[in-house]
UniProtKB/TrEMBL annotation:
UniProt entry tagged with the keyword Kinase: no
Transmembrane domains' residue ranges: 7-27
Keywords recorded for this protein, A-Z: Glycosidase, Hydrolase, Membrane, Transmembrane, Transmembrane helix
Pfam families: Glyco_hydro_39
Protein name (database record): Transcriptional regulator, AraC family
Amino acid sequence: MKKKKIIYKLITLLLITLSIPISIYLLDRRTNFINRAYFSLTGNEANLVINLTDSRPFVPHWGYFAQGGEERDGMLSDVIKPVSIIEPVYIRIDHVYDFYDVVKRGSGGKLEFNWSQLDKELNVILQMGAKPFVSLSYMPSAISSGSEVDTPYSWDEWKQVVQRTIEHVSGKNELAITDVYYEVWNEPDLFGGYKLKGSKNYLTMYLYAERASRDVRNTYTFKFGGPATTGLYKSWFDNLLIFAAKNNLRVDFFSWHLYSKNIADFEKDIFNAKVWLLNHPKYASTEFIISESGFNSENDSLYDSDFSAIHTLSMYAATFQKIGKILVFELKDGPGPEKFWGRWGILTHENFGEPTPKPRYKALEFLNLMRGNWYPVYGQGSWVKAFAITNGSSIKLLVVNYDPYSKHVENVPITFVNMPVTSFTFRRTDFLGKTTNMQNTTSDKNWKTMLFMQPNTASILEIIP
């Protein structure tokens, strides 16, 4: 009898052990299902209303890009033409000090500067029609106490490096580039593990860099800020601005990075930053910048797919008129094992022939059709985002239906209020699809239509007199 009990216990234990991975798998599937079901049940469908009474000028918050440190020498020189086509305004580069060998220690112990390699990269940016957005990173080996992400031997030497950088790039007698953005470091909470106190204190780094920005001579105007953290963190937000106020430091812009498939995270970050800023009235005019954006900070095959394009369109539609700049990461893939390898670039690498535009590139071309003056749009939903403009006589409405699960279908009611015309052509241009035209007349000042949208699709609707 005792032997049977032992066998029974062993069999029971074996069954429990075997069931654990199955249970975990099923739980994960169930959790995924619950998440999708919850989002479907709690999300709001759109009922778009566009008020055509009055249009206002705006500056697009797209056209801004960040390029990662994929290669050391001339990494953007092969994509000048395709990048110039999408009309970039600013292009951000990091690794300025550890990739381009700008500073070394001379025989007398003094710092010597050589800008030739950096100038090549900056000149490429200028040829693209953009201005540089310079991430002041990482620590030059000539002054570092360790690696490229460690503190310098002397913070005064860090100050000297930053000062000479600004004087060279923005100097009236040097490169003479106006309105350059200078950002103190890149993801300090990750690269270097900087904190807000202790031996690796980001605030100390910012203090000496800001002092450098004050001491520059004979330069054009420029913007100065940071911290370009891996996300928007209240502790970094408050501590930097409190420290800056206490020491009378300039913070022209506050920057952070955001990678998320959830578009609401972009809206939430911007809202939170605006609320938090109310506690720092000295910096009420500080600009907010998401200086890297995407849906995954790691390699992801979706970066080579249409999903990436719809995510980009939805991100910009959802944040329209809420933030000044969101930088797309990145312009060009680094060299990889094959042409399409899930890298972040909107263009492929030249190792596999002429760089090929990926879907996100096409999304930015699509966005560029939406320049002009803007109209207010009300009634956006959880999945469907939109914004409207006029570029003269025609009226355009960009509508995006984005669902990270690629499931949501929506039939969107659209009302144009105070129509300026009674007879018009109604044009629908589908992203990566066809264009259709329909003649319409209306006797009502308010004109209604419906737009049926499959998951992860976008269209521009145009009213042409």
